[in-house]
Each structure stands twice: as C-alpha cells, then as structure tokens.
Amino acid sequence: MSKPDSNINYEDAIDYWTAVPATVDGVLGGYGEGTTVPVMDVLGSNHFLRKLKSRMIPADNCQKIGCDIGAGIGRVTRDMLHKHCDVVDLVEPVVPFVKQMDVELASLKEAGRIGHIFDIGMQEWTPEAGRYWLIWCQWCVGHLPDEELVAFFLRCKEGLQPNGTIVVKENNTQALEDDFDEDDSSVTRSDDKFKELFQRAGLKLIATERQKGLPKELYPVRMYALKPLD
Ligand SMILES: C[S@@+](CC[C@H](N)C(=O)[O-])C[C@H]1O[C@@H](n2cnc3c(N)ncnc32)[C@H](O)[C@@H]1O
C-alpha cells in the first residue's frame, strides 16, 4: 500500500483553501469565533511560550523577529505572535488569504510590526540565514510529505538566529499510520512520527505540551519547541 503522504498534492491543497472563506471560521475548518477553539488555542500558545521564556533569550543585538508559517489570514500573528515578537513575517500561498491579511493585520502593519509577506508554499520558502528568533508552524505542516518536511526544517534551522526556536503546533493522530485527508490533501501525523522527523532534521525537542480545552471530537493538538542539535 502507498504511504499516506505520497497522496499529497500541492495544487489540490491550494484549490481547497482558495475555495474556503477568508475568515477565522474558514481557516479553522468551521471551528471559528462561535466556538472555544480560537480562544483556547491562543491561551495555550501564550502559556507554552511564557514557560519557554528563559530558554528563548534573544542573542545580543537581535530583534525578536518571528515567522508565521502557513499563516492563513494572519490569525496567529494578529492574536498571539505579535505579543511575543517585535516584527512578524508571514508565509502563505493562498491568494485570498494573503489579501485578507491587509484587513486583519492593518494596525500591526501601520505600527511597522509586519515584515515580509511571502506568498508562496513553505516547500518553496528559504528563510534568510540567521533572521528568526521564532519560526511558528501551526496547522499547516501536514501539507508537506515527510521528505519535504525534513528539508523544510533543515532550511528553517539555517534561518534561526543564535538561540532561535522553531515551534510546531499540529494535530496528532492516535493511529499507527498517518491519516490522509483527501479534502485538503494533507496528512495528520502521530506524535512518534513527528519526533522521528524532528530527529532526522537534527532538531532537539526542548519542550512539548498538549493543548488543553479543545472539543473532544477534534484530534488532540500538541505543541513542540525545537532547537538545532548542532
Ligand atoms: C488550517 S489552516 C491554518 C491557518 C493558520 N495557521 C491558523 O492557524 O489560523 C492551513 C493553512 O495552511 C496553508 N497551506 C496549505 N498548503 C501550504 C503550503 N504548501 N505551504 C504553506 N502553507 C500552506 C493553507 O492555505 C492555510 O492557510
């Protein structure tokens, strides 16, 4: 049987997301502002980052530059990342979502807190070497097959400042095999699979935590904080 990630098709994913409303409800698959998900998500992320603070001291003369990967309409930047970072860049390949960032991020843009917006897929994105204090990947890495994801992590490592951190916040399957979702052409990986891929990319897991307070019918969500091993 073929590996679940061999079914991933980038164009199918773009088509799927392009047809979804450019709203919080849209990017969260129907779990938008009428549900507990956006609020619990932000609370969980803030809590996770606060606990990591002593291990995320910026290197001398470094600004806290963040990058929001698979950013959708900029929800994570608007509601959470901007509170931790001086400036945030965003990576998002879906045109209507990138357009909506003008609205969602208007006041942050005006305040000079938004850096570059890269309107490309993460498989095509190479970060500027040594730029980032924090690279935040949330609910998007399932769009890359395993090999591409390891290659992406390797590029992200090069994009980190000294003492920079990568955070991955994703659904976990409890099954032994990854779950392929043909609607949005993505896979949901197990905790073990994530750990294997981090190791292959030379990333050390410095902290991990399960997101609390999400509806029971959803996949469990886990945050992983990672630093380069070398
Ligand atoms: C579930 S939404 C999450 C959006 C955002 N991270 C959030 O939490 O609000 C998944 C996002 O991944 C984006 N995406 C799909 N394929 C991608 C790719 N190859 N590279 C980067 N982002 C991708 C989609 O366009 C969509 O914005």
From TrEMBL:
Query: GO cellular-component terms in the record?
Result: cytoplasm
User: Where along this sequence does the record place binding of S-adenosyl-L-methionine?
Assistant: G70, R75, M122, Q123, Q138
Assigned EC number: 2.1.1.244
**Record field: catalytic activity:** N-terminal L-seryl-L-prolyl-L-lysyl-[protein] + 3 S-adenosyl-L-methionine = N-terminal N,N,N-trimethyl-L-seryl-L-prolyl-L-lysyl-[protein] + 3 S-adenosyl-L-homocysteine + 3 H(+); N-terminal L-prolyl-L-prolyl-L-lysyl-[protein] + 2 S-adenosyl-L-methionine = N-terminal N,N-dimethyl-L-prolyl-L-prolyl-L-lysyl-[protein] + 2 S-adenosyl-L-homocysteine + 2 H(+); N-terminal L-alanyl-L-prolyl-L-lysyl-[protein] + 3 S-adenosyl-L-methionine = N-terminal N,N,N-trimethyl-L-alanyl-L-prolyl-L-lysyl-[protein] + 3 S-adenosyl-L-homocysteine + 3 H(+)
Q: What is the lineage of its organism?
A: Eukaryota, Fungi, Dikarya, Ascomycota, Saccharomycotina
This protein is called Alpha N-terminal protein methyltransferase 1
The GO biological-process annotations, alphabetized, read as:
methylation
Stated family: Belongs to the methyltransferase superfamily. NTM1 family.
**What organism does this protein naturally occur in?**
Lachancea quebecensis
